[in-house]
Amino acid sequence: DLGEYRHYMLKEIFEQPKAITATLEGRLAQHQVLSCLSGLNPMAVLAQVEEIQIIACGTSYHAGLIGRHWIETYTDIPCHVEVASEYRYRRQPKRKNLLLITISQSGETADTLAALEKVKQSQACLASLTICNVMESSLTRESDLSLMTMAGPEIGVASTKAFTTQLVALQLLLAALIQAQQGETPVSRQLVADLAQLPQLVQQVLALNPVIETLAERFVEKHHALFLGRGEQYPVALEGALKLKEISYIHAEAYPAGELKHGPLALVDSEMPIIAVAPNTALLEKLKSNLEEVRARGGELYVFACKTANLVPNEQMHVLELPPVPDLLAPIVYTIPLQLLAYHVAILKGTDVDKPRNLAKSVTVE
Ligand code: F6R
Q: Active-site residue numbers?
């Protein structure tokens, strides 16, 4: 039921505060994460983990990249991330007490399932855990532990609320991991406190919709776009580029902003729109100098920036301000305007937003 919305994608974008609330429901106490994992002895398993491998495809892979950033920032557990179609066909050295995490909206993605099977057959992991949106799916059946995202059915082929709830699930898992290995710590307490504010922050950012709709007009005639981010915002940029290409068919690429001068800067001219995500984190000043490199080459910049980032708009640089957010929530909050941008550009181009050409919602064949 579409209700007041024109497309499932838009409905699902606007459902995100509700989907996030549902994913948090019953899982947060005042200072700690409560049990959010189903399976045998989850906390005993987490207590033993010495290394993590995340496997996923597409948008779910982007969630994994952000998850790695969080896990390696807040624990001493090394974490690797790989797309399932590569991981499944390459030799894996044995690792000690490895937790294998699959991330999937559908729970039926062929490559992700095959990668899980391969690891299980070689007994190369301590346990497998899936972050999944479908309770009765192949991945939940085949995994030792499950952490369900409570996004509800996602109909639009382009994943939106499944992605942001995957990120919420990764934060719940991170807090549980810290609690299992070190007990309650200032970091696990901070995670819990930040998560509680998230639905309301996402709601605030959704209010940018009309501004983004207007901004979208500037992209309709474009054939290419470049997305930039640094740190955990680089995967946010990857996700923004994927959304734009899959529904508007505009060729989009994402780069870590520091890589610009190693090649992509050659593409920058007045025809190339560059979209950057700029929350007020430790890397903001670095990003600002990358934006300056783009400006100096005549590139047109669209920056989604924190109000406190003090980015001064000019003829070449459009700035859309977002409210200040805790570092841990920034990737989730900054994803929202990029989803809206892709949606409105696609609408203006007249594509079939909910069913983009050549794509299927669930990729059950290799
Ligand atoms: C992009 C998109 C795809 C899926 C990918 C994995 O918007 O939806 O990239 O993320 O096909 O699907 P799941 O998460 O079901 O394993």
A: 361
